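Lay summary. Proteins are chains of building blocks that fold into shapes, and those shapes determine what they do. In this project we predict the shape from the chain. Here is one chain we studied, written as its sequence of building blocks.
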Amino acid sequence: MLSLLRFPSKSFFSFVATLLVTITLAGCGNSCFVAISNNGNGVVAVKAGDPPPVCSLSPAMGTVSLTATRATPCQQCTASARVDHLYVTVRGVQVRTDSSASDSPEWVALQSGLALQPRQLDLAGGADQEILANPTRVSAGTYTAVRLQVVDENSGAVMHGRASLCGANLWNCAVLADGTIQPLRGISPSGELLVPLDTNDVAVLPDSHLELRLAFEPRFSLSLSDSRVLQNTTTLSAWATAIRFPQ
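And here is the predicted shape, written in a compact code that computers can read:
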């Protein structure tokens, strides 16, 4: 039997200290314990049974999925400033482990196969959500960011034999209502879009499911082209919100 006990930050560490002393004095008995702390808020898992369980517990696991909420077109904007389509070609999606938990935070892949078969998504218009990653088992713990890896504009990738909806050699773009196609800014030179969490970090608890909902927003600005001509540019902004479900 596995039970979860939750403690506020002020009592969590004192409880764990007492628990460790008790285990030292009494041995394993018929229970095993594992504790997870997220910003001082604690969760203690208690495993008990008859006969007594083996005290070397398997790594605690949960699941994470990713969905994308499409950007809503600006109905009050002129045709030259209204985005009808936001095409982003994704070749990988990951979540990042908490850097304070280890010297080198890791990126954990959530959707396999995208590197070989990238997906070109339209992140604007329509009320339907786009599924970026189905529920994937990950280690329980704290995660701090989402990363979308996109096809580099110079990679020459081919998706299922189809050409890009942005045009030749352009894989990430905004299509305006007047038909203008603009390359998307906000993507790093290495082809990555870092998506912060609206709460800075989030905990994946043992035997629970966490859905990360990504929201996208195109932002307009003026910039100088290589020929020193003033032009409109579209920058893709994104953030993630965590929704927790019991498994």
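What the prediction tells us: The CA atoms of residues 94 and 110 lie 6 Å apart.
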